Structure formats: C-alpha cells, structure tokens
Amino acid sequence: MNRKRESGMRFPAIADFIRNNNNFFLTAHETPDGDAIGSEIAAYFALKSLGKRVRILNADPMAEKYMFLDTDRAIELYKEDCSMPEDISDWVLIILDTNDINNIGSIKDNVLSRVRDFFIFDHHEGGDTVESANHIESEASSTCEMLYELFAEMHINMTYEILVAVYLGIVYDTGSFIYPKTSARTFAIAEDCVKNGVSPNYIYSKLYESNSISSLMLQSRVLSTLELFYNGHVAVQTMLKEDILESGALYEEADSLINIPLKSEDIKVSIFFKENLEGILRCSMRSKGNIDVAFIAQIHNGGGHKTAAGFKSKYPLEEIKAKVLEMLNKYFLQPKDDK
Ligand SMILES: [Mn+2]
C-alpha cells in the first residue's frame, strides 16, 4: 500500500464511496472476532453521524463478550427470513476485516449479490488479486486502526462509542499491543482512545475476564488433545463437535485457545483444528518469528497473515492434519514425528 501523505489524502476512494452513497450494509468475516465486531460498530456510528442509513449483517453470531459495544443493537444475524430493504439495489456493502468475498458466509449470496456496489476495507495479506474497489493495508495492526485514521481524515467526530470499539479491536488484534504489526501509531491511537474516556482495564475485563464456566471446560478438553511435532516446535490441538456439545460452550468460545501453546518458548507454530456444530472442519494456524503459515491457508482457499491464517478443510481430520504438517517441512530439519 502507499501511504501518500504528500497528496494530503490517504483514503480518497473509501471516503468518496461513503460520501456518494446513503444506504450501507456493513459486514465482516465469518466467526467475527474482536476486530471484526469493533470495526462494524465503529463504522456504524461513524456513518450514522453522517446521516447515513446503516445495517450490520453478519453470517455468524458474535460472542457474548462483544455485546456491550452494540449499544444500538444494530448487529443482525443473517437469516433467510431477514427483512431486506425493497430498495436494496440502492444500497451498498462495506466488507470489513477480510479481503476475501468467500469469507463472509451467507452474506455473499444474499447481500453482496444484490447491492449496487461494494468496497473492501481490510488489513489482511493476500489481497493483491482483489479486483473490486478496496483499501487494504497489510501492515496495519487491525482494521480498527485503519478506520480510526479514515474517520480522522474525514473529520468525523470520534464519540466514545466509536473509540471504545476501535480500542477493543486494536487490543484484540494486537494481542494487547504485542503482535508484530503493533506500531507507534497503534499506541498513538490507543492513547487518544484512553484520553477520551476508554478504560483499558474495563476493556481487558470485557475481553479476557468475561468467559463462561462452560468455555473453561471446553478449554480443558481442547488442551488435553495437544500433540507435538517436529521436535516439539509444532503444536496441534483439536476440537470436535462433541467437545462443544458436552462442555455446553459455544463454538466461538474456542476462539483464543490456539494462542495457549505459543506461550511455550519452544513452540513456533500452533495449529488448531476445530469442527463446528454443522461438522465443518476449520484449520487455524499461528506462528512466531519468520515462519509463514499464510501460504498453507492460501493453497487451501483460505487467507490471513504470515503469522495468523486459516481455512476450511475439504478433507477429513487425519488427512488434512498430515497435509498441513507436511507443508511445514521446510522450516524444520527434524522429522515431523517425535519418536
Ligand atoms: Mn483484523
């Protein structure tokens, strides 16, 4: 991306898109995380303040812990009997926190295909081939960080509701200001949020101290599946449908379990296979240092960043596990089985 400060404007295309339209749908990637929800809420209030009509429509439910951001109860879950505007051809769609239109679930066929136009606003890698209108900055820490800077450039009044959503998205996507894309501007934006009333401790408690007992039980089950490969450098955890049902937890409560193995110094890659209640198997990967896991996701029609990526598997568990482990071969001299 080019941050052309000389020309004065960094976000001319999306700013025009916002100015030139009046009716907006907002969406984000499937199983929306803190940055996806934070982005939707921040964009919702910003667009509202410009007098726009705005609806947030997601393919998957959001985790309970994010609900406090949605003070207008604006986030809707797409269902077949959802009431859609009669003038939907006068509406446009902004896709946040993903640059892959296959990653927005049922919104693709039910909203994207029916609106007049759409715009992708994102910070993930792999957007080089995106042909639609878009603004993608793969070195930004989060979509929320980019939105803050867009709204600042558009002179939008940053209310508490916008700032609290922006702050939450940044904290989530930077792992509390420690992941590689955390920059001085990330801190500058966070500082402005805190100066204007956002409480870091309150957001911490919402994000990390609001889990249910059933999610704790799910965590204990998932951690018990831990397997190590490549001389203890690659961790694999697995969650099956039964684990969700028997713990009583929600699928989205497994969100952060992939980060646990990375707390061990030796673990360089953490892989998490998780099956949802419909039996769809997803592979998520996180890595440290110079290990690129995005290429594995891209080969399987997924996406993400160098150190955080994922895809939906077409193969059964054992088969896809073998394939993914094999692809990490080039990073590790040792054989994959630690026997
Ligand atoms: Mn993000």
Architecture blueprint of SSEs:
Layout: H1 12-19, E1 23-28, H2 34-49, E2 53-58, E3 75-77, E4 91-96, H3 107-112, E5 117-122, E6 134-136, H4 143-153, H5 160-173, H6 184-195, H7 200-208, H8 213-223, E7 227-229, E8 234-239, H9 241-247, E9 269-275, E10 281-287, H10 294-299, E11 303-305, E12 308-312, H11 317-327
Parallel strand pairs: 1-2, 1-4, 2-3, 4-5, 5-6, 8-9
Antiparallel strand pairs: 7-8, 9-10, 10-12, 11-12
Bound molecules: manganese (II) ion (MN).
Description:
The structure is a single chain. The chain is of the alpha/beta class and 339 residues long. The chain folds into 2 domains: 12-208, inorganic pyrophosphatase (n-terminal core) (Alpha-Beta Complex); 213-331, Diaminopimelate Epimerase, Chain A, domain 1 (Roll). 33% of the residues lie in helices and 18% in strands. It has 11 helices and 12 strands. The protein has helices spanning 12-19, 34-49, 107-112, 143-153, 160-173, 184-195, 200-208, 213-223, 241-247, 294-299, 317-327, and strands at 23-28, 53-58, 75-77, 91-96, 117-122, 134-136, 227-229, 234-239, 269-275, 281-287, 303-305, 308-312. A 6-stranded parallel β-sheet has the order 3-2-1-4-5-6. Strand 9 (269-275) and strand 10 form a beta hairpin. The chain is globular. It binds manganese (II) ion. Residues 35, 97, 123, 142-143, 173 line the site of manganese (II) ion (MN).
